[in-house]
């Protein structure tokens, strides 16, 4: 971490300031050391990442996922490919934030994974801070090397180590629904943003792919098998679906009279998400069936969260009914 981010951080328990004890540096960037509170709480800095939690808890599948596929969804990896521009378009549509509100500003992402949306912030000229509960933070740190304008933190988004009102904007895309308390996560995100700053989030909508009975059934099966077999069954199915099942289902739906039947099978029995890039298909099929927690929500529910979190001018943005943005009061 670069020392300039120190004033953004606080003890997640007491909210008191922290001071930096560097052990190893690379230029100005601290590679190892500790953050220490006045009353002696110590948080290690390991491989350039401040660590405020010792376990991944319910987020372990994302540590595995983003370590295995750390750059599949980065724009630089998709130039000239079917999903080129997708990550940037998704971020822009969900947040509805222009570059004038990013360039030179400090922007935080809750649930950053390996950092594909932080990359969008950086390419738009913003200073990017990402927090994740899982070991995905190691993949994110590698993706940004020693970029002094990126801070990656391992911590709990329900109890984050950020000072109140320290960021100009903040977002959580595809993250809050993987926590035990999405509303609390949105409240902590909003508190980290200054009054007048922007806040955006997107969660799984009810009735769509991630709410299918087939996805729920496969997810329950994975979580039963995981203690004995780890991620091997889920990984094998993700490969089967990405390379064989999803393309066959997509072609089958083009045959007159078959679309309704195949849609029923996908909704109720077989997880099959078709995207035009096989690497994205593989990642998203695995992502669908492995989380320990994955709730779905309505647009009204998410807009109500925004208002309870202390946002005004709350509006649904164009990505889906559960992509919502607002301004912190």
Q: How many strands?
A: 11
CATH topology of the largest domain: Rossmann fold
Would you state the CATH class of the largest domain?
Answer: Alpha Beta
**Contiguous helical run count:** 10
What is the architecture of the largest domain at the second tier of CATH?
3-Layer(aba) Sandwich
Instruction: Write down the overall geometry.
Output: globular
CATH superfamily of the largest domain: Vaccinia Virus protein VP39
- Estimated radius of gyration: 20 Å
Q: What is the count of distinct domains? A: 2
Q: What strand order characterises the main sheet?
A: 7-6-5-8-9-11-10
Percent in strands: 15-25%
Q: Indicate the structural class.
A: alpha/beta
SSE layout:
Elements (H helix, E strand, L loop, with lengths): L17 E9 L2 E9 L4 E5 L2 E2 L9 H9 L17 H10 L10 E5 L5 H8 L3 E6 L3 H8 L6 E5 L12 E7 L8 H11 E10 L10 H17 L2 H21 L6 H10 L9 H12 L9 H11 L1 E6 L6 E6 L1
Any key phrases for this structure?
single chain; 329 residues; alpha/beta; Rossmann fold; 7-stranded mixed beta sheet; 4-stranded antiparallel beta sheet; 11 strands; 36% helix
Structural overview:
Helices cover 36% and strands 21% of the residues. The protein is α/β, with parallel strands linked by helices. The chain has 2 domains: 51-205 and 296-328, Vaccinia Virus protein VP39 (Rossmann fold); 209-289, no CATH class. The chain has a 7-stranded mixed β-sheet, sandwiched between helices. Strand 3 (42-46) and strand 4 form a beta hairpin. The longest helix has 21 residues, at 232-252. The relative contact order is 0.13.
């Amino acid at each position: 971490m670069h020392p300039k981010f120190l004033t953004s951080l606080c003890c997640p328990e007491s909210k008191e300031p922290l001071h930096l004890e560097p052990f190893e540096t690379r230029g100005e960037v601290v590679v190892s050391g500790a953050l220490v509170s006045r009353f002696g709480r110590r948080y290690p800095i390991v491989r350039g990442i401040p660590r405020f939690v010792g376990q991944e808890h319910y987020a372990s599948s994302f540590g595995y996922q983003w370590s295995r596929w750390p750059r599949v969804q980065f724009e630089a990896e998709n130039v000239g490919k079917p999903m080129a521009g997708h990550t940037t378009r998704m971020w822009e549509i969900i947040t509805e934030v222009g570059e004038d509100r990013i360039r030179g500003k400090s922007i935080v992402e809750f649930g950053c994974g390996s950092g594909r949306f932080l990359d969008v912030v950086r390419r738009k000229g913003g200073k990017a801070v990402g927090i994740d509960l899982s070991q995905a933070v190691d993949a994110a740190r590698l993706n940004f090397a020693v970029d002094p304008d990126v801070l990656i933190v391992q911590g709990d988004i329900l109890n984050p180590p950020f000072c109140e009102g320290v960021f100009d904007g903040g977002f959580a895309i595809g993250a809050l629904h993987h926590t035990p308390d999405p509303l609390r996560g949105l409240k902590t995100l909003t508190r980290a943003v200054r009054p007048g700053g922007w806040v955006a989030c997107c969660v799984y909508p009810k009735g769509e792919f991630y709410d299918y009975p087939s996805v729920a059934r496969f997810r329950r099966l994975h979580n039963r098998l995981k203690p004995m077999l780890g991620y091997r069954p889920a990984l094998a199915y993700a490969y089967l679906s990405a390379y064989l099942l999803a393309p066959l289902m997509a072609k089958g739906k083009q045959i007159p009279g078959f679309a309704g039947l195949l849609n029923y099978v996908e909704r109720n029995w077989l997880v099959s998400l078709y995207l035009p890039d096989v690497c994205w298909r593989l990642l998203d099929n695995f992502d669908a069936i492995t989380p320990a927690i994955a709730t779905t929500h309505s647009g009204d529910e998410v807009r109500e969260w925004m208002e309870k979190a202390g946002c005004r001018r709350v509006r649904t943005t164009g990505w889906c009914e559960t992509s919502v943005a607002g301004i912190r009061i």
